[in-house]
């Protein structure tokens, strides 16, 4: 998006502010569907957890996407868009049997990732088709915190336990209608990813009623200038060929699914924050913005890189800054980063702020969550108001404390 447009939005709605450009979301969606246009039945399910504002979910529904959810709350939110429950897939990890049953009752496709619940669910509800999440033990993702397919990972049923799944199916007469994997984020190596898909084909062959294979997600997008990203077009060519071969062999045109989050929304998001203070210390120049890891936690949590530009002075001479927040705790967005010369009250733009940014934001330090704006056909829509003190207090009960307790506190 243009700097001038972003500056106008910061002026109109205040800072800090999240802005989402739906043109970018559509173009990423179209890139994926084009890359896999050789597959007869393709379904893309947007991973709600990446960015879950209901207007974003409605936008995906209008694009024709399904929705990938990881909690019953995400399912309930998704249903509020009016989407057909059959277009929702629920892929939780370590949740209770009760929650899975509640979601199944809503008509949503469920995906089970452990043997103990699979067995009980199959005994109680053999008529409800279930997808199983397989852990192929292939390391495809990036950072160890976001790679979830490795041997020690808590996700999925180990590939070595497929015979056990088959015994459960035999004993309960339940129906396995899908095979799923999600090996983690930031996949760069297509060959490794394809090795995992071959493992899933082998698993799928061992079940008679497969309707779909869900290859999860984890497509990497560029975060730094000149960063490498997953070559979706190349993956499309190679996986399409293998998938179509599998369908022929299996004797049925099954559906190929993906459930991308980051790929679809990361680059569409910009986070705008205002510089409150420029502080020169003996060693560093700090730019303190009116935000912190309460609003954008990825740098502190995953050492994630977010490109930062000074949209108030884009032509300024580059200088080195540490960009930090206003939280009473270390909250560094960037260290020793080259940015066009910063003055107090300038607006900084954090790029790639669509995925896992607002959705991970908190009220730490009792700060308000930022407002969110969505751009559709060049027009801006406020899709979430900035919070107020009433929101902070909303679920807090002000209780009548015994007088004595209060006195003790005062004298202590
Ligand atoms: C988080 C998650 C995704 C989305 O991953 P991205 O890296 O954002 O594309 C997909 N599927 C499951 C099961 C997930 O937990």
Topology:
Layout: H1 3-13, E1 17-21, H2 22-35, E2 42-47, H3 54-63, E3 66-69, H4 72-79, E4 88-90, H5 97-105, E5 109-112, H6 115-124, E6 130-135, E7 157-158, H7 162-172, E8 176-180, H8 190-204, E9 212-214, H9 232-250, E10 255-258, H10 262-265, E11 269-280, E12 285-289, H11 298-302, E13 308-310, E14 318-324, E15 332-340, E16 347-350, E17 371-376, E18 379-384, H12 389-393, H13 403-411
Parallel strand pairs: 1-17, 2-3, 2-10, 3-4, 4-5, 5-6, 6-7, 6-8, 8-9, 9-10, 12-14
Antiparallel strand pairs: 1-11, 11-12, 11-16, 13-16, 14-15, 17-18
Helix pairs in contact: 2-9, 6-7, 8-9
Residues 47, 49-50, 68, 70, 91, 182, 185, 216-219, 259-263, 355 line the site of pyridoxal-5'-phosphate.
Domain Orn/DAP/Arg decarboxylase 2 N-terminal: 23-266
Enzyme class: lyase
Function: Specifically catalyzes the decarboxylation of meso-diaminopimelate (meso-DAP) to L-lysine.
Textual characterization of the structure:
The protein is of the alpha/beta class. The chain folds into two domains: about 20-260, TIM Barrel, CATH 3.20.20.10; about 270-390, Lyase, Ornithine Decarboxylase, Chain A, domain 1 (Beta Barrel). Helix content is about 30%, strand content about 25%. β8, α8 and β9 form a beta-alpha-beta unit. The mean pLDDT is about 95. Pyridoxal-5'-phosphate binds near residues 261 and 263. Its EC number is 4.1.1.20. Specifically catalyzes the decarboxylation of meso-diaminopimelate (meso-DAP) to L-lysine. Keywords: Amino-acid biosynthesis, Decarboxylase, Lyase, Lysine biosynthesis, Pyridoxal phosphate. GO terms for molecular function: diaminopimelate decarboxylase activity; pyridoxal phosphate binding.
């Amino acid at each position: 998006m243009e700097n001038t447009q972003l500056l106008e939005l910061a002026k109109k709605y205040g800072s800090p502010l999240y802005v989402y450009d739906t043109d970018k979301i559509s173009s990423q969606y179209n890139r994926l569907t084009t890359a896999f246009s050789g597959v007869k039945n393709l379904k893309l399910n947007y991973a709600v957890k990446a960015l879950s504002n209901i207007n974003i979910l409605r936008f995906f529904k209008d694009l024709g996407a399904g929705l990938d959810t990881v909690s019953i709350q995400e399912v309930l939110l998704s249903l509020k868009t009016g989407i057909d429950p059959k277009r929702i897939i629920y892929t939780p990890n370590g949740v209770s049997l009760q929650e899975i049953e509640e979601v199944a009752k809503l008509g949503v496709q469920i995906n089970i990732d452990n043997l103990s619940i699979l067995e009980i669910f199959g005994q109680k509800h053999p008529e409800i088709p279930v997808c199983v999440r397989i852990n192929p033990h292939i390391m495809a993702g990036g950072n160890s915190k976001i790679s979830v397919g490795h041997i020690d990972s808590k996700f999925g049923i180990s590939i070595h336990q497929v015979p056990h799944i088959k015994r459960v199916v035999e004993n309960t007469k339940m129906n396995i209608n899908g095979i799923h994997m999600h090996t983690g984020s930031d996949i760069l190596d297509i060959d490794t990813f394809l090795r995992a898909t071959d493992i899933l084909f082998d698993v799928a062959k061992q079940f008679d009623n497969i309707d779909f294979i869900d290859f999860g997600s984890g497509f990497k997008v560029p975060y730094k200038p000149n960063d490498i990203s997953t070559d979706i077009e190349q993956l499309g060519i190679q996986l399409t060929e293998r998938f179509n071969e599998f369908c022929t062999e299996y004797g049925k045109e099954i559906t190929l699914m993906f459930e991308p989050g980051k790929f679809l929304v990361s680059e569409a998001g910009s986070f705008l924050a205002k510089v409150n203070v420029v502080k020169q210390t003996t060693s560093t120049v700090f730019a303190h913005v009116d935000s912190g890891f309460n609003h954008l936690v990825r740098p502190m949590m995953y050492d994630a890189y977010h490109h930062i530009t000074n949209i108030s002075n884009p032509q300024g001479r580059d200088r080195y800054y540490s960009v930090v927040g206003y939280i009473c705790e270390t909250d560094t967005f960037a260290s020793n980063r080259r940015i066009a010369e910063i003055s107090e009250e300038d607006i900084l733009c954090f790029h790639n702020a669509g995925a896992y940014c607002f959705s991970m934001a908190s009220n730490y330090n009792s700060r308000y969550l930022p407002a969110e704006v969505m751009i559709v056909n060049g027009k801006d829509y406020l899709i979430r108001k900035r919070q107020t003190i009433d929101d902070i207090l909303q679920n807090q009960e002000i209780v009548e404390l015994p007088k004595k307790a209060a006195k003790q506190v005062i004298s202590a």
